[in-house]
Amino acid sequence: MTAKFLAILLSCALLGVVIDLVRREKLLFHYAAGWLAVGLAALFFAIFDGLLGRVAVFCGFILVSNFVFFALLGALVSLSLGMTIFLCRQNKRNNQMAQKIAILEYELQQLSQQRTVQSGQETSK
After folding, report:
1. Is the sign of the CA dihedral 58, 61, 62, 65 positive or negative?
2. Are 11 and 56 spatial neighbours (Cβ–Cβ below 8 Å)?
3. What residue spans define the domains of the chain?
4. Cβ atoms within 10 A of the Cβ of 86, count?
5. Within a 10 A sphere around the Cβ of 95, how many other Cβ atoms?
6. DSSP code for 30
7. Sign of CA dihedral 76, 81, 85, 91
8. Reported pTM
9. In sequence order, what are the residues at sequence separation of 6 or more whose Cβ sits closer than 8 angstroms to the Cβ of residue 38?
10. Is the pLDDT confidence value at 125 over 70?
């Protein structure tokens, strides 16, 4: 099995898994877009491997493998940063929701106490 065939196979597998997760609604397209971009770039450079060598030399890399590792590291750092931003937003939303629920529970408790007091006053009359 050649490296080119293996790279094409793995790129297609990544794209297939991401598309299937989006189709089954396990992953939103907004968050899958980064993985799709990585998969499409990997597939493109697996098919046109000569272009990958030219891009690596243009960027100053002597070995194409070093460029590939650098590009993958950059892609994974970017995806991790995106997921960290998403988690921070979700954490903020969860805190706001917990505060709103606490306020609603407090108001419900106050209304329940008022109702109990009013019903107690009506029975004593």
Report:
1. negative
2. no
3. 3-124
4. 13
5. 10
6. H
7. positive
8. 0.66
9. 14, 75, 79
10. no
